[in-house]
Amino acid sequence: MNIFVVNSGSSSIKYQLFRMPFNQPVCSGLVERIGLENSVITHKVHLGDHEEVKQLILDLPDHEAGLHEVVQLLTDSKIGVIQDPAEIEVVGHRVVHGGESFAATTVVTQEVKAEIKKLFPLAPLHNPSNYMGIEVAEHIFTNAKQVAVFDTAFHQTMPEKAFRYAIPNSYYTDQGIRAYGFHGTSHKYVSEQALEYLDKPDAKIITIHLGNGCSMAAVDAGKSVDTSMGFGPLSGLIMGTRSGDIDPSVIFHLVNQLGYDPDQVNTLLNKRSGMQGLTGFSDMRDIIKAMDEGDKNASLAYDLYAYRIKKYIGAYAAVLNGLDALIFTAGVGENDAIIRERICQQMEFLGIQFDLEKNKIRAKGIREINIAGSPVKVLVVPTNEEQEIARQCYQLLHVQAASVAENTSTHASGY
Ligand SMILES: Nc1ncnc2c1ncn2[C@@H]1O[C@H](COP(=O)(O)OP(=O)(O)O)[C@@H](O)[C@H]1O
Ligand SMILES: CC(=O)OP(=O)(O)O
Ligand SMILES: [Mg+2]
């Protein structure tokens, strides 16, 4: 089954093509700077022991133009991996907000699209571009089933005491105002990898996803029981451009004393805050460089970032009533040894015995960065949201196809 996975962002598209049931992608790529001059497509064809990489720089006015170029690469006479877009049987889409409607992976219908659209105000940086990705893919891959995999789905197991806010009940019952949680595909993928690695299905785990967006989850025996993002992907940890937790009184002050309108508040907290607001940079590599050059703001921001994570570790260890493993993942979590060190130091009381040397070693795959015998394991687990999306699409459609085949044969045999 050819499954094309699309992770459509506001100015980028990440994609991978899988021939399920094989877990390794046939090709993958990234379209960046959509809508700006000099858009870049980096396309990689995976050939067993090596990769063939092709980079294109061109002007892509919108996502449709971007995906058309990707199709050209997929069907290219030299490096193509398919001959016709009709060979794609399933397009799996990452959709960030699924509200309470979607606890599982879902085939996209008009009703599903309407629901995703209804959730635009709750995930303004994400759902509009996820939706656009679905519409464009429908035009291009006309033979394919479109499937949505929601960031919120994994967190639907949270108990009510974890997802409700202390505001009048009708705001939940009538308006759906509650915590949903995000990055679920990543938290699910890395926690499952860790459970397998630990060989302990009932392990108590804290997963720490540090990418552009950052969130943590408390995972008990494979189920999410709490997470740091809430109603939208803005609360909790300090992120690239998002503030994370902030006292709502600040918003009243911005509005009442400084005359901000709702859009200005939204832009401030979603796009101009976090590491960007504190340092002028949103990319952790730039912040580390600035810190090395003696930039005090960068140093303070780095401290704030680590401190917030430490607080959530304490909270989630209490929620879980114990801890077997701490998992670091995503761009920053997998690559930034210094942040892992800042977070894990002086946590011996919790049973976290961190190994400074192991932490510095770069390697592929799962690795352990605790001292041998540490009561709590500290693991770096590379995330792979695209592979998890492909797996869930395959499971959904393969199971559906198998049950249709079974029904047909039962009916054909006349029982
Ligand atoms: N070697 C590195 N050291 C520190 N941070 C890194 C490194 N490589 C990548 N990053 C960080 O990872 C971030 C992107 O993470 P990623 O998980 O790809 O995010 P997203 O999927 O949200 O775009 C970058 O903004 C950068 O801050
Ligand atoms: C939900 C979210 O924050 O996603 P990302 O990290 O891709 O921005
Ligand atoms: Mg990501």
Automatic annotation (TrEMBL):
The active site is at 151 (proton donor/acceptor). GO terms for biological process: acetate metabolic process; acetyl-CoA biosynthetic process. Its cofactor is Mg(2+); Mn(2+). One of its GO terms (molecular function) is acetate kinase activity. Mg(2+) binds at residues 7, 385. Mg(2+). Can also accept Mn(2+). It catalyses: acetate + ATP = acetyl phosphate + ADP. Its EC number is 2.7.2.1. NCBIfam families: ackA. Catalyzes the formation of acetyl phosphate from acetate and ATP. Can also catalyze the reverse reaction. Belongs to the acetokinase family. This is Acetate kinase. The gene is ackA.
